[in-house]
Amino acid sequence: MTTLTPGARRILDVASELFYAHGIHAVGVDTIAAESGVTKRTLYDRFGSKDELVAAYLRARDERWRARVTAAVEAADDPIGRVLAPFAVLEEWTAESDRGCAFVNAFAELDDPAHPGRAVIADEKHWLEELFAAELARAGIDDADLALHLLLLHEGALVTYAVAERPAALRIAREGALRACEQKSVPEH
């Protein structure tokens, strides 16, 4: 993300909090400007439109998520631990994000495929699947569908955690991912 002025940073921080807590359509630029202590003109000067502000919100959230997952991958001390790192991060992440996945929530609201936020959402999901695929390959697990399987478990856990209020979904998804990896692992001789 490009470096933001202090005013733009304040706008983005306020918008991010409001979009996540209340939804994108429920929050207007008047509210964001007022709570940021800026004029609507300043908001539009910095971001161009509400759609671009939404995309900036999603990019900022994506950057934080990727940094957290990447740190967990790098901290893992075994190949399967690296594969499962995105699951390990979920409990900590959901403690700060009790409304589930911001990208899934935003996708539900952004019905226009041309909305700039939609590309950010798709990119985040593709990145996670690619990360699973890369770490599976690194672990010596050759299964073209397993990365998608892990993505489905991961995303399903987030949605089930938030929508069905089932915290155990995070643990169960991680256990399922571990079993799937163990079944595909090549035993060492």
From TrEMBL:
The keyword Transcription applies. Residues 5-65 form the HTH tetR-type domain. The keyword Coiled coil does not apply. Keywords: DNA-binding, Transcription, Transcription regulation. It comes from the Bacteria. Residues 28-47 bind DNA. InterPro entries: Homeodomain-like_sf, HTH_TetR, Tet_transcr_reg_TetR-rel_C_sf. It holds the Pfam family TetR_N. Gene3D superfamilies: Tetracycline Repressor, domain 2 (1.10.357.10). PANTHER family: HTH-TYPE TRANSCRIPTIONAL REGULATOR YJDC, TRANSCRIPTIONAL REGULATORY PROTEIN. This is TetR/AcrR family transcriptional regulator. It comes from Actinomycetospora chlora.
